[in-house]
Amino acid sequence: xxxxxxDLLRLLAERGYIHQVTDPEGLDALARKEIVPGYxxxxxxxxxxxxxxxxxxxxxxxxQQAGHKPIVLMGGGTTKIGDPSGKDESRRLLTPExxxxxxxxxxxxxxRFLTFGDGxxxxxxxxxxxxxxxxxxxxxxxxxxxxxxxxxxxxxxxVRLRLEREQPLTFLExxxxxxxxxxxxxxxxxxxxxxxxxxSDQWGNIVNGIELTRRIDGTQLYGVTTPxxxxxxxxxxxxxxxxxxxxxxxxxxxxxxxxxxxxxxxxDVGKFLRLFTDLPLDEIARLENLQGAEINDAKKVLADAxxxxxxxxxxxxxxxxxxxxxxxxxxxxxxxxxxxxxGEIGLVDALVxxxxxxxxxxxxxxxxxxxxxxxxxxxxxDVAIKVAGDVRISAGKKKHGLLTH
Length: 405
Known about the structure:
The protein is α/β, with parallel strands linked by helices.
């Protein structure tokens, strides 16, 4: 590991956030000398980000912890186009009204992780629609276009991979990388931003912004990317059988969020504690070295800390207690996913409605294999369940839900 002198890069390196840095010595020296404003962009394609964005959110939190200024850039403008990185097809175009509503919804999550305000290290939120919507097309092409060659743009993964798979790439999407580079130029001018951070797939886009700003304004900018966060079995972090792990509570409740972290694979506990909690590194080292059944204690610490950071201490404690009662005492915890039922419901519909399985086909297979239970009793067929009070439905040993009257 490179021996960094600045608190910022040392913190990022120690906790496993660094994949690439454009000019490590230059950024390290700058971060020692002054407060560095740095940004990450987030497009507003839905009302909530998911846990796959959490590394980037935590990066901004680490910046603030190290005494620097985080800038959350919402893609009010670029969301109207769509980032082709890692995509096989064009993004569905959203109305400006929907995009603005999504930004307002997403902001609530950032307020959990960052301190916003007017101070030198307080976070700010910007929206690239403020400058992209106002661009005049021909002057923009004359000023910015000459700094990009089609030859080089075709070598970027976001373009090359789409073309190799013979998937269409629209001219609209092809413009995305130019606009993202322009964002860095604008933030450099408007907020003295000197650093862009992002996932490893954003390296080319970040370098574009650095080069564009150097050519037009002569300003030195820097970039840091994070490694792709995968699970021990090689899967993409945040992908589950039940779909995306959303950060907004109205799309995924604290109990299910707690369970996501509790179900972390043994080999990932240390890495996730470093990336997604504020626990001291020596405590993390102790926890990740626990053996056998004791590693479950480390997973509970991870689940408690990650849930408290997003949803608050009370919600995390309630989720942990509900899990304890459900799994250790066999009781029905109040924070379990619930489904209100008038009268009765079939077991297949109950399993799907509670989100314990993804489809009716999966529910029937679970029942046939003896993995479905109603109030602790195995159900061998799609029984009709009368719901006069709370009824606990289980899918296997770890997934539970409540039918309520």
